[in-house]
Amino acid sequence: MSAPLTAPHDPTVNAVPTRPPLAVTPDVPDTDDLARLRQRFAPIFERIAAGAAERDVNRTLPYEQIRELNAAGFATLRVPRSHGGPEVSVRTLTALLVELAAADSNVAHQYRSHYGFLESLRHKSSAQQERWYRLILEGATVGNASTETSGNALGTLNTRLEPRPGGGAVLTGRKGYATASLFSTHTRVRALDPSTFDPKRRPRRVLSFGSRALSSRGPANPGARSVPEHARSAPERIEGRGFRCAP
Questions:
Q1: Per residue in 65-75, pLDDT tens?
Q2: A Pfam family matched by this chain, by name (predicted)?
Q3: How much is the pLDDT for 109?
Q4: Tell me, what's the pLDDT at 26?
């Protein structure tokens, strides 16, 4: 039996403006960049570390901690300079994530899906890049809800993208891993469109899986609205460095 979370969903976790782009050199992992970034984020990391053990024991979700990091621009670090971002190197970002994880691993893990999305965005169209980099600089973050734990054969999904009369679509289904989706403004979801869905398959529900403070349990709400222009078919998915996606 799992204990209830002590904090309800907070839809305002990302409703804060980010600061102006950081003054760092793009993709140059020198100590000057890292030193300046440490100076910026170290006080926040210290405040996060101070309450980490208590949050973990009480299963308190880190809304305030993530809100403070996002307000300081932590989610924008890999946005390219050509789009107005700081574009710090992967090495510098990794060093900061290691330090954040030392303060509270639950908080650091929330940025896994977000930065995975940012890296894959480098291989997308100019129009997609322009839209999403702008949103991220305005404070948007991206969670993940792709994996299903049971009820589907290898290579298939139970989650469906169902068109609605008059336009638009809704998602129906449940996901098993959804790290950061509760704290994010957007969630990246894998789903089948109606032309590939097998109606004989029965949906299943798994409600007892997840980590204490990662918001990883069953996030996909039945009837969640999907924005058509954000949907992409499998052949359009990319295979980039470190991100391999089967067609």
A1: 999 999 999 99
A2: Acyl-CoA_dh_N
A3: 92
A4: 44
pLDDT in tens, 35-77: 889 989 999 999 999 999 999 999 999 999 999 999 999 999 9
| SS3 per residue for 76-127 | HCCCCHHHCCCCCCHHHHHHHHHHHHHHCHHHHHCCHHHHHHHHHHCCCCHH
Q: Cβ-count burial of 225 within 10 angstroms (0-12 exposed, 13-18 middle, 19+ buried)? A: exposed
Tokens matching residue 69: 């990091």
CATH 2.120.10.30 fits 31-126, yes or no: no
Residue 131 has pLDDT above 80, yes or no: yes
pTM, rounded to two decimals: 0.69
pLDDT tops 50 at residue 5? no
Residues composing the chain: 247
| Beta strands in 92-213, from DSSP E residues, in sequence order | 142-145, 160-163, 169-172, 186-189
Name residue 163's amino acid: P
All structural domains of the chain with their residue ranges: 31-126, 141-229
Q: Which pLDDT score, from 0 to 100, does residue 242 have?
A: 33
> CA geometry: angle at 108 spanning 184 and 93, to 5°?
100
d(CA 100, CA 124): 29
CA 128 vs. chain centroid, Å, equals: 17
For residue 146, what are the CA distances in angstroms to 161, 173, 177?
13, 11, 7
